[in-house]
Each structure stands twice: as structure tokens, then as C-alpha cells.
Amino acid sequence: MPGPLNGIKVLEFTQIIAGPYGCQNLADMGAEVIKVEPPEGEPWRQFSQFMPNEAKYFQSLNRGKKSLVLRLQDESAQQVVYDLLPQIDVVVINYRPDVPARLGIDYDTLSELKPNLIYVDNTAWGRRGPWAHRPGYDIVAQSVSGLMAAEGKLDKNGSPRQITSTAIADYGTGVAIAWGVCAALYHRERTGEGQLIESTLLNTALAFQGSSAFDLPVADAAVHARMERVHQLQELGAPYAELLAAHNPQALLTVGNIYYRVYSTKDGAVTIGALSPSLFAKVRAALDTEFLGFADPEFNPLDPEWSAKATRAVDEIEERVRAGTTAEWLEIFERNGVPCGPLNFAEDMLDDPQVQANDIPVSLEHELSGPQRQVGPLLRMSKTPLIPRSASPVLGRHTDEVLRLAGYDDARIAQLRESGAVA
What we know:
Elements: E1 9-13, H1 18-28, E2 32-37, H2 43-46, E3 49-51, E4 54-55, H3 56-59, E5 65-69, H4 75-84, E6 90-93, H5 99-103, H6 107-113, E7 118-123, H7 138-145, H8 147-151, H9 168-191, E8 195-200, H10 201-207, H11 210-213, H12 221-235, H13 240-247, E9 260-265, E10 268-273, H14 277-287, H15 304-322, H16 326-335, E11 340-342, H17 353-357, E12 361-366, E13 370-375, H18 399-405, H19 410-419
Parallel strand pairs: 1-2, 1-6, 2-5, 6-7, 7-8
Antiparallel strand pairs: 3-4, 9-10, 10-11, 12-13
């Protein structure tokens, strides 16, 4: 069965993570995605290559696409884009803010040629404001948006540590790009209108912190007082560790926490998550303890006596859990109805029975690097299934095919290749 975006053609001018991931989601949904790359390939092809022009990072973000190599600084290569445009439904771009207009592929230029075009313009900070022309990457978005401070981790020098488990702003923006394209296609189906979609790493990073960024004066007197203290410390030139301590008094909630945490076991670790009174009781039953922790009506981590008693109680519980294996404790927690799971490594997860039972892994064959398994599409659809059709493309593999789509004959293609406009 064809995917939900079968028949939609996407012209992709993106690199690194956010744009490629967004367009890979569109390809999984059945869209024909034509990825435009410079002759040397996009930067993610070059990062940690295991063979020329092939990197695991690139292959994980570009499945199901076609590769068109254009030297966009060349006017004849720009003309290729214009000649292709009648066949194209969606353009996705995440170049530096000053680049699209310079290359003649900005929204104003392309929408004049194709008024019903859907154009996604992804930037780090947005097209307006004092930072409009600044470049940016996920680590900078983490820092600027507050994500890094909210993580609350310091290195040995007292400096903030980034979220290293994933490029959270990048991947989140990729999902937002695919979501926006689908909504815009639905709108165009009803009205015939194309439109400009703007996504930013900054907006995504803030959206993921909705509760923290949410300003509610009637409830936020303590928050405002805390931030006033942070600002005072900033004016005094206080180091980051002091700012973090003033900003994050909730760290005290770790005192007496037996309910929402990770426990070490004899052979690994087990994680539990309980956030309601009924689940708190189930955790205590599983741990065979009467200690209430932060469910105690007299909870006061600032009271040295209470804090000392809580610390001793938690130490005893932790020692008891460490004496058993992960499997043993999972059985105990599950028997008592406690949400729980083992601490796994991503590299093992494609073989996990739960992952396999839900058909999350996909197996593909790359023409150069051979067989591979990946995490498949984000969702399942019963009538229009999402099916990855191919591994990531070899650099320039589809250049001739796409040029013929634009109406170019063999002689014209040879001329463009000789001039260096295409490869």
C-alpha cells in the first residue's frame, strides 16, 4: 500500500540533523525526497567516515532519499532548481540565514515561480530579532534556551554539562518540520494555497520546557523570588555553580527520594517511576519499608534532623536493592504494580523483544556498505503504512534521474557536468 504522502515531491536543502531527520520522516511517509548536496557531500557525510563519503550519522538520517549534486553557486545549477520546481510540492531548507537569498533559493524567489509551494525555513533562532543572522547548533540552543541549566549537571570544573544523550533540539525540530509539512499539505488540499513554514531550534527547545518557561503570576511568587536572586548573583559575577544552586532548589527533593529514580542492583540497575499516592504505597510495599520519603506530610529537606533520618533510610533501601539482581527486583516491582524497567543501552535495543514485537527495527541494504538495521518510522498507520524504501543514497546517485525529471536531455546533462554545475 502507498504511504500517506505518496505522490508528494520534496526538494531538500538541509544538512546535519534537524532538516535531514524531518525529511527522512517525510520519506518514510511515502514522499519522494530529493536531497540536494554540494559536490563534496553535506557535512554529515564527512563526519566520522567509515568509507569515502559514507558515515553512520549520515546513513541514519537520510534513508529513502535521492541524492542530487548541484554546485549552487553556479547560476546554471540554480536554473536546475527553477526547472525542477514545477514538479516539486515542498522545499525544506536549513542553511545559514544569509545563504538562501544569495543562492536564489529563498522563499520569495521560489514562491514567485510556484505560488502553491510549501517552503520550510529552519533556522537556529528565527528570521527576526537581533540573532536573526547568527548560525547555531544544538549545543548552543541547549545553552541559550535554558535546557542545559535545567539539566543541572556540572563538570569537575563547575561548568555546565550539555545533554549528550541526544541532540534534543535538533531531533525535536525534525519532528516539527514533518508535522508542519503535513498540516500545510492538508491546508493546500482544501484551499490551493502554499505557505512559508518557519521552525527554529530555539522554539523547539523552549517548547520542551513548557512548564518551566510558563509564567503564571498567581502561582509563581516563589519562582520570581528565586530568579531575582539568580539575577543578583549574575550582577555580582557569581560562578555558574552558585547560579545553579540558587535557580534549582528542587534539587533538595532528591533527599528522601525512593519513588522516582534509578537503583543500582547486583548486576546493573533498575528504574522506577511513581508519581501518585497510590503508586507511592506500591513502591513502599515492594521495598518493604515504612519510610515515606517526599510523601511524608512533614517532608522538610531543610531540617537537618529530618534530612539525616531520610538519608539513613534511603541508604538502607539502596543497600537492600543492591543485594539483588535486576531480574529479581523487576519481578518484585512488577508484582506490586510499580512502573519499572531495566537500564539498557541503545546499542542493544534493536534486539529487545518489546522493540521487535512492535516492528520498530527495519533492515535495509546500502549499495556500498551492505546490510544495516535502523530504528524505523516514528508511528504506525493501518491504511497508509510508513515503509522505509531504501537506505541512504550514495552521493550523486540520482543526479541524472532528477535532471531528466526537470526536462534535461543527455547532451545538456553532459554540458552541466563538464562545467562543474552538477556532479
